[in-house]
Amino acid sequence: MAARYRGGQTDAQAYGGLPKVPAVKPYFWGLKLLTTAMGEAISDYLAQRFDPYLAVFAGFVVFAIAITWQFRTVGYRTWPYWSAVSMVAIFGTMCADAMHIALGIPYPVSTAFYAICLIVTFAVWYRVEGTLDIHSIVTPRREVFYWLAIIFTFAMGTALGDFTATTLHLGYLASAFLFIAAICVPLVAWRLGANPVLTFWVAYILTRPIGASFADFFGQPKSASGMGFGHPPVAGVSLILVVAFIIYLSRTGIDRPAAEAPQGAQAPTGAAPQAAVAHYPQNGPGPRYRNQPQYDGPPQYGGQQYGNPPQYGNQSQYGNPPQYGNQPHYGNRPPYGNPPQYRDQQYGNPPQYGNQSQYGNQSRYGNPPQYGKPPQYGGQQYGDPSRYGDQPHNGNPPQYDNPAEYGGQDYRNPS
């Protein structure tokens, strides 16, 4: 059973549905007891005040409206759910009383009949879905099984309470205390670690005869072991208490399942675990959680979308160098991106240092510089070997073209 229970949680997440039942907390059991008492008192009043067949038909119509409202609701909502439970309490009581009063079927037989119907419902439910956990009620089919079980628990509880009070002659008050003692058994077993699904359904069945026995105790005449207040006052008081309880739950939201419980409303320690089902919103991507900030898009910083670079003053987009206000220039230095200018000269040309006229007309880098004029050695350019004839000479070579300088003798022709 425990394995199936864990599997039910996984199924709830896989279906992506929302739980259709409230959180099982002390106020759940308190309102459940009030609805059983109210159902017993209103059913007895309608059966005695109006025609029983008309009352049963009217009860069925209102029950059908309430259960349709519940089925059409997305997720758990306080008013649809507890309205359906209240009408099940009234109509289930009518069904149990109709079998005994109209058909003359004894209470032990009607009790056994509804018990068999309940067992068959549980067996088919478990075989089809693999779980009886009420927190796995996230699909229409599971919800059908759930409400069938609820109807049969109310009908069987009503017949069982009447059986102990009238057939066994225990009276209504003694029957109420008998079932209070009986409901302590699943409570203690659950506290000791028994299966939470099994203990829940046993306790749920026993709440019906407790509430019905107290309603009959206050409404039935003294001759029938009651207090004799009458069914109309008991029905009115119980109805007011039920409506006030529902209003309180709907405003506080403390009855919501764990998946959509408001902040501060936590399940009590030891409560049966509930399926963690995400609450998907109707608008915006991703799941929404109550009392949590919504992230439907990237955050905005000063009206600018996250992911775009911030703007600092009149700065261009990234890729162009930023301009930081009115930036001073150093000399005639241009903005970033252009090579620096040195006295209006392009980068790559050698700078001019003062007056370079002493070096002649010097070209730019890449051409050898000209250093004035080459030196003259006796009016002859250095490096011109044609002036030496066939023989080089160091220093200032003699002039062979004028042999008169050497006594008119030409050394090149010694003869």
Q: State the end-to-end CA separation.
A: 144 Å
Please state roughly what percent of the residues sit in beta strands, choosing from under 5%, 5-15%, 15-25%, 25-35%, 35-45% or over 45%. under 5%
Average pLDDT reading: 73
Q: What form results from the Cα inertia axes? A: globular
Series of H and E elements: HHHHHHHHHEEEE
Count of helical regions: 9
Number of strands: 4
Strand order of the largest sheet: 1-2
Unreliable sequence segments: 1-15, 261-307, 356-360
Oligomer: single chain
Give the biggest sheet: 2 strands, antiparallel
The helix/strand class is mainly alpha
What is the gyration radius calculated from CA atoms? 53 Å
Helix content: 40-55%
Q: What does the model show?
A:
- The protein has 415 residues and is mainly alpha-helical.
- It has a domain at 24-260.
- It contains 9 helices and 4 strands, in the order H-H-H-H-H-H-H-H-H-E-E-E-E.
- A two-stranded antiparallel ribbon has the order 1-2. A two-stranded antiparallel sheet has the order 3-4.
- The longest helix has 28 residues, at 140-167.
- The termini are far apart.
- Mean pLDDT is 73; it is low at 1-15, 261-307 and 356-360.
Task: Break the fold down into its secondary structure elements and pairings.
Layout: H1 2-15, H2 26-49, H3 52-72, H4 78-101, H5 107-129, H6 140-167, H7 172-191, H8 196-219, H9 231-252, E1 300-301, E2 304-305, E3 376-377, E4 380-381
Antiparallel strand pairs: 1-2, 3-4
Main traits of this protein?
two-stranded antiparallel ribbon, 415 residues, 2% strand, mainly alpha, 9 helices, single chain
